[in-house]
Structures are given as C-alpha cells and as structure tokens.
Amino acid sequence: MGEAFVSSLLGFGVAIGLSALGLGLIVWIVEREARRA
C-alpha cells in the first residue's frame, strides 16, 4: 500500500497545484484587463 498510496497522493497534489496555478493565472489576467478598461 505504501508506494502506490504515496504516488497517487503525489499525483493528486500535482493536479491540485496545477489547477490552482491555472486559476490564479486566469484571475490575474482578468484583473489586469479590468484595470486597463
């Protein structure tokens, strides 16, 4: 159970990290566009 659990947890963490990064990027772009308008 050890290694499979760790690797799936790592994959889950990476997926969450990438989602948060993408969301942050979208928010940053929207705010920048709103300021320019």
How would you summarize what this structure contains?
The chain crosses the membrane at residues 6-30. The protein is mainly α and 37 residues long. It has one helix at 2-36.
Describe the protein's architecture and organization:
By secondary structure, the chain is an all-alpha fold. The chain is built from 1 helix and no strands. The radius of gyration is 16 Å and the shape is rod-shaped. It starts with a helix and ends with a helix.
Outline:
rod-shaped
- What's the N-to-C terminus distance? 54 Å
Query: What is the count of DSSP helices, taking H or I runs of 4+ residues?
Result: 1
What proportion of the residues form beta strands (DSSP E)?
Answer: under 5%
The secondary-structure class comes to: mainly alpha
Mean pLDDT: 95
Low-confidence stretches: none
Computed CA radius of gyration, to the nearest angstrom: 16 Å
Oligomerization: single chain
**Number of strand elements:** 0
Order of helices and strands: H
Major sheet, described briefly? none
Transmembrane segments: 6-30
Keywords: Membrane, Transmembrane, Transmembrane helix
